[in-house]
Amino acid sequence: MFRRLFLLVSLAAFTAGSVPPMAKAAVVEQPFAQAAFDQAKTAGKSVLVAIHAPWCPICAKQKPILATLEQDPAFAALTVFVVDFDNQKDVVAALGANKQSTLIAFHGTAERA
C-alpha cells in the first residue's frame, strides 16, 4: 500500500496539471502532534507524515494529489499527519527529513517508505 502511495504521489507531483476535486474526504489530515503520532503508530495504524511548507511548489502539487488519494477506499484506514516545515523544525529533524515535500510512510512503529 505504501509503495503504491509513494509511487503515485512521486510521479503525479511532477506530471499532474490539476486533479479534479472529490466530494468528501475518506481520510482526515491533521496537524502533527507527537502524542497522536505515537498513539497511531502504537495502535498499528498505517500512517503518512507529510512535511509541508506553504511556499513550496512541490508541496503545492502534492496537496491535491494526496487529497485525491485520500478519497480512495484503499486508503480509508490511513492516518495523515502534516508537519509544518517552517515551524516544526524539531519534528522535521527527529524524522530525519532534510527538506519540505518529504513523505514518510509508517505501518505501526516501522518506517516503510
Q: What is the CATH homology-level superfamily?
A: Glutaredoxin
Task: State the separation between the terminal residues, measured CA to CA.
Answer: 10 Å
Helix count?
Answer: 4
Sequence of secondary-structure elements = HEHEHEHEE
Number of strands: 5
Summarize model confidence as the mean pLDDT: 81
Question: Do you know the CATH architecture?
Answer: 3-Layer(aba) Sandwich
Number of individual domains: 1
What is the name of the CATH class? Answer: Alpha Beta
**Structural class, from helix and strand content?**
alpha/beta
Proportion of beta-strand residues: 15-25%
| Oligomerization state | single chain
Q: Poorly predicted ranges (pLDDT <50, ≥5 residues)?
A: 7-25
Strand order across the largest sheet: 1-3-2-4-5
Descriptive overview:
It is a single chain. The protein has 113 residues and is of the alpha/beta class. It has a single domain, classed as Glutaredoxin (3-Layer(aba) Sandwich). 39% of the residues lie in helices and 21% in strands. It has four helices and five strands, in the order H-E-H-E-H-E-H-E-E. Strand 2, helix 3 and strand 3 (78-84) form a beta-alpha-beta unit. The longest helix is centred in the middle third of the chain and has 15 residues, at 57-71. It is globular and about 30 Å long.
